[in-house]
Design brief:
TIM Barrel, globular, alpha/beta, 20% strand
Length: 219
């Protein structure tokens, strides 16, 4: 079974199971069968609609098919004011704690701030950094704090930080994703298996086991 932990498109591609990410304004999509995460993305935060958008996320997150909150997070490379991002992130962290659901996190140049929130506002649920592409040292630091890391298109770039970090990470803390980046989930699994010296079947079993552990639910 190939599980795609993070995808936006409705088409599952080659994945057997997809955790499809819905934005705050896509609540109508929950009428369709599937597994979802739902969140207010840092790029989409607006001061004028923040409360309304967070209420939409809250309503969506209560749906039984929504397994995680997100993607949410912090991004110092985007134009949305960072204090506003931080406010929205904290509210979604609170929601994850209230509902007992994991977090799918978008993080760009803000790992220390994410660490601070994780330390000060523990949810008791897993936190997953999607599309991880930071140093091996940062990866180890995140894993020591209990984070999961999800990998995708960067595994195909030998000069990327994700490529250099991936093979040395504990197998029980990794996920794979497409994030609509132009690579099939089959290709991502094949590349990940090659980098870790595993058979394709072993890689599928590994990710399926991690999914069950993280979400306490068979996909």
């Amino acid at each position: 079974m190939k599980i795609d932990i993070h995808r936006h498109a409705a088409d599952p591609g080659e994945a057997d199971r997809v955790l499809r990410n819905l934005f705050h304004n896509q609540g109508q999509e929950l009428a369709k069968p599937g597994l979802y995460s739902a969140g207010l993305h840092p790029w989409q935060i607006r001061e004028t609609s923040l409360q309304k958008d967070l209420e939409s996320v809250t309503n969506m997150a209560k749906h039984e098919s929504v397994l995680a909150i997100g993607e949410t997070g912090l991004d110092k490379a985007c134009k949305v004011p960072f204090p506003l991002q931080h406010r929205a992130f904290l509210e979604q962290v609170k929601l994850a704690k209230e509902l007992g659901k994991p977090l799918i996190i978008h993080c760009v140049r803000a790992y220390q701030e994410v660490f601070e929130v994780h330390r000060e506002m523990p949810t008791g649920t897993p936190w997953i950094i999607h599309w991880f592409n930071a140093s091996a040292e940062m990866a180890q630091q995140l894993i020591r704090q209990g984070f999961y890391l999800s990998f995708g298109s960067m595994l195909f770039r030998e000069d990327s930080k994700a490529f250099k970090a991936f093979s040395s990470l504990p197998e029980d803390k990794i996920f794979l994703e497409t994030d609509d980046a132009g690579f099939s989930i089959s290709g991502v699994y094949e590349k990940a298996a090659l980098l870790r010296g595993l058979s394709l079947a072993a890689m599928e079993e590994l990710i399926e086991s991690n999914f069950l552990t993280c979400f306490q639910r068979l996909p």
